[in-house]
Amino acid sequence: MKILAYQRVEKPVLDDLQKNHDVQFFKNVDTNSDQAFLAFLQQADGIIGLDLKIDRQLLDRAPNLKIVSNVSVGYNNLDLEALTNRKIMATNTPGILTDTVADMVFGLILSTARRLPELNQLVKSGNWVESLDSRHYGTDVHHKTVGIIGMGRIGFAIAQRAHHGFDMNILYHSRTRKPEAEEKFQATYASLDQLLQRSDFVCLITPLTKETKHLIGQREFNLMKKTAIFINGSRGKTIVEQDLIQALKNGNIAGAGLDVFEQEPVDPKNDLLKMDNVVTLPHIGSSTHETELKMSALAAENLLAGLRGQKPPNLINDTVWK
């Protein structure tokens, strides 16, 4: 089989695939003009990788394609309608990264609340020359109220950490009620507006869909407490980034912790990078050695099952199989 690997497939998995198949790996190429990429795409039976935009234009250039295997939980890079119409399977890698991303979100909560990156830089720059006063104080995390927007697997894991580790009060907003979270963590379901008004930490952890694009903007930031900290571990386009910048400049909220941006890699001139009360990460939610290897392995399992004519374990567009 001819397999096109794109952007991020861990080396042990890539090596295993190459033992039995014709695999070509591409990284940081222009997928509209790179001749080697386009030539191999014309022959490819399967695609495995991260962040490759699969739309009608690309599919027109891939007549043999049978399956696309995303090395991620999110799949907003896939035109599912176009894939399904052409009877091409699409898969993702759910479950594996849940705890890793939840750890990262809590890292953002703690880093932002206690101003860890800012104070780390103070020490390393040699400017810690006297006892610190209230200008450098952070805010407590324990026993505060965390609002979780999106109570899926990752939201559930965040609630678990908040309840058991930090004795936090938990509000959540989701498409459906989550009785297990309510029972195990005393989580309280709230409307989005109620959650924003009452939370000390607002954690956005929804997938990017038509419904969630720009879910949080000026109106929503204005509803938050002036002492609130906003955490985005979802996708950059789930918020109106310029509205977040204005909310921070105007003092409508106290700070933000971000793993995602509207444009990635982020523009070096972005105002968010100049703010001491904003902690910024380069979209590393699932990026640990252990989790990335497991994700690539599951993506390869999905891919090979589809190429063998078997139903992949994590098929997104199930109607193709039916």
Give short descriptive properties of this protein.
alpha/beta; Rossmann fold; seven-stranded parallel β-sheet; five-stranded parallel β-sheet; oxidoreductase; EC 1.1.1.79
Describe this structure in words.
By secondary structure, the chain is α/β, with parallel strands linked by helices. It has two domains: about 1-95 and about 290-320, NAD(P)-binding Rossmann-like Domain (Rossmann fold); about 100-280, 3-Layer(aba) Sandwich (Rossmann fold). About 35% of the residues lie in helices and about 15% in strands. The protein is built from 13 helices and twelve strands. The strands form two sheets. The chain has a seven-stranded parallel beta sheet, sandwiched between helices. Helix 8 links the parallel strand 7 and strand 8. Helix 5 (about 100-115) crosses helix 7. The protein is globular, with a radius of gyration of 22 Å. The two termini are about 25 Å apart. The mean pLDDT is about 95.
Summarize the SSE layout with pairings:
Elements: E1 2-6, H1 11-20, E2 22-26, H2 35-41, E3 46-49, H3 56-60, E4 67-70, H4 80-85, E5 89-91, H5 98-113, H6 116-124, E6 145-149, H7 153-166, E7 169-173, H8 179-185, E8 188-189, H9 192-198, E9 201-204, H10 218-223, E10 229-232, H11 241-249, E11 255-258, E12 278-280, H12 289-307, H13 318-321
Parallel strand pairs: 1-2, 1-3, 3-4, 4-5, 6-7, 6-9, 7-8, 9-10, 10-11, 11-12
Helix pairs in contact: 5-7
